[in-house]
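quick one
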Amino acid sequence: MPIAPRLEALTFDLDDTLWDNRQVMVDTETGHYAWLDDGLAQWLAERGTPAARRFAERFPLADYVARRQALADAHPLRRGDFTWLRREALLALLGDYGLDAASAAQWADAAMERFMTLRHRVSPYPEVDELLDRLGRRYRLASITNGNVDVRRLPLASHFPVAIAAGELLAPKPHPRPFLTALARLAVPPSRTLHVGDSWREDVEPARRLGMQAVWIAADAPACPLPPGVHRLAHVRELPALLTRLGD
Ligand SMILES: [Mg+2]
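structure w/ magnesium ion:
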């Protein structure tokens, strides 16, 4: 006998749930900043106005991070909109470096374009494509991410008829809005939906508060008792077996 109402939909976090995001973020963060630094140095030299100090020498990566944090503190409503925070921080730094507003905007946009290209070089775990294909035949699927990956740019986009970018809703998880938006677009009640994610605070807790079931992907966290409706897996590949155990 099923313990809970029969599930109709599954919602998925993306970063560190469907792929390992750590190295992608490191490569993306350092990569677009180095690209900007190189591009600027070359551009200034070609114009005959080389700077005494290179951009990244004057503003090391840590300064860029600090600017983003300061902007997030000053604009709490935008704190989840990482793309906006990065672009604004770059604009400010480029202005401080001496670029006029138009050139600063051009270089900030170009760097963000580079950022987004690198950001989408994610490699879903090898099992993910087939897993989503199989689950998509049985359940309605949605993705809910706080990150700035645009699912539509990834091959696995075809599995997600509903894709929610929480940062763009100005309400990053754990805010209920991205979950409620997904449920509305899926046209399913929370009790018939299971959310899968790696963050206790941003995935499991908000899903449970709305009455969804939740799967916590946590390979390394110490064992602990779980509240009702929460299931723990070491890897998303174990999801089909769990769904079978739940009687679905
Ligand atoms: Mg995650």
